[in-house]
Amino acid sequence: MQRKFKQPPESDSSEETLINLTPLIDVVFVVLITFMLIAPILEIDSVDLASGSASTKKETPETSQITISVHADNSIWHRGQKVTVVQLEAQLREEKKRHPRAIPQLIHDKKAQFGTYQTVKNALENAGFDHMDVILKPS
Fold this sequence. Notes:
The protein is an alpha/beta fold. It is elongated and about 105 Å long. Helices cover about 30% and strands about 10% of the residues.
């Protein structure tokens, strides 16, 4: 007893199979509507930049007393001398005791690495400073 299997009729090769895109479009619309509803609720952090005009420049007497420079070779300078991170942190602790309300200024060369900026920032935080001014283009 032999069984004969019928083969399905050959389909035309010219017919293309259709792909239903409706579920994909539905998902895209749901995601779009979700973003449209959530976007106004989000709190976006912003940075207030100082204006470029000299007339609105605020002069604080204690601001310019502590200046730290980072040169292109990633060397750190404080009080006109090259210092290590450990020396810098010790000097900043002394500065904090002498000038508790002072805001240090960091003059960072644009060719220096970001890691050096982060190191100086950490030293300032460890010394007890809450704020720091970053001078991008000193006058």
